[in-house]
Each structure stands twice: as C-alpha cells, then as structure tokens.
C-alpha cells in the first residue's frame, strides 16, 4: 500500500522560503506515468494545485505560483520536495503531497506564515 507523508516546519516567517518534503513508501516515485503533486488548501478556501514532478523528473507548475515555486526529488530516498519562496501570510495553508491520478494523498501539514 502506497503511503505519503509530508514533513517540514509548521511555522515560517514572511519573506522566507517554505520547504516541505514528501516521503513515499510502498511504491516508487519513478513508476512510469506517475505524477507527484503538491496541493494546498488555505483556511476556508478550496484546494489549489501548486505543481508536480513526473516519474521522469520533469516538473510542472501552476502559472500563478511558477515564479516562486520549485519542486525537486531525491530518488535514492524516494522523496520529493517543495520550495515556496518569498512567502506571505496568504501562503498559510494545509499543504498536501499527492498523486491525484491514483488517489494517493498524504494527511497534510499545516504551515503558518507569521512573524
């Protein structure tokens, strides 16, 4: 059974970089045709897709976040990572790592942007 687990700080100061790691167990992030996403949900709002890294290592980003977002991976650890730069309080959200196509989701982690 594939499981995803987000990890990272729960509090980040404005203007700093938010970094989260997703550890995948029970399956490989290099499995053909799989795309591994970061998705967030601000308080009281809907889900927002931020970007993804493909099984090939290609990356895709939401146009609205592309200038501030970077997704990378470490295949030796079966992990992929989100970096969101120059954060503001509006980036406060529950952040999920997921493979929506096959309905694999982490439990989510709340990241608060505050000084």
What is the C-alpha radius of gyration, as a whole number of Å? Answer: 13 Å
Series of H and E elements: EEEEEEEEEEE
Distance between the termini: 39 Å
> From the helix content, strand content and strand pairing, which structural class follows?
mainly beta
Chain oligomer state: single chain
Annotate the secondary structure layout.
Elements: E1 3-7, E2 11-12, E3 18-25, E4 35-41, E5 48-54, E6 59-61, E7 69-74, E8 79-84, E9 93-99, E10 104-105, E11 109-113
Parallel strand pairs: 2-11
Antiparallel strand pairs: 1-3, 3-8, 4-5, 4-9, 5-6, 7-8, 9-10, 9-11
Task: Describe the overall structure.
The radius of gyration is 13 Å and the shape is globular. It has strands at 3-7, 11-12, 18-25, 35-41, 48-54, 59-61, 69-74, 79-84, 93-99, 104-105, 109-113. Strands 2, 4, 5, 6, 9, 10 and 11 form a seven-stranded mixed beta sheet that branches. The protein has a four-stranded antiparallel beta sheet with strand order 1-3-8-7, with no helix packed on it. The protein is mainly β. The relative contact order is 0.31. The termini are far apart. Helices cover 0% and strands 50% of the residues.
């Amino acid at each position: 059974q594939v499981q995803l687990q987000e990890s990272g700080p729960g509090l980040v100061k404005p203007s700093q970089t938010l970094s989260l790691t997703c550890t995948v167990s029970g399956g490989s992030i290099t499995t053909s045709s799989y795309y591994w996403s970061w998705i967030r949900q601000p308080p009281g709002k809907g889900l927002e897709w931020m970007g993804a890294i493909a099984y090939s290592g290609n990356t895709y980003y939401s146009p609205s976040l592309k200038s501030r977002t970077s997704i990378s991976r470490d295949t030796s650890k079966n992990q992929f990572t989100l970096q969101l730069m120059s954060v503001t309080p509006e980036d406060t959200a529950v952040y999920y790592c997921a493979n929506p196509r096959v309905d694999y989701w982490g439990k989510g982690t709340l990241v608060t942007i505050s000084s």
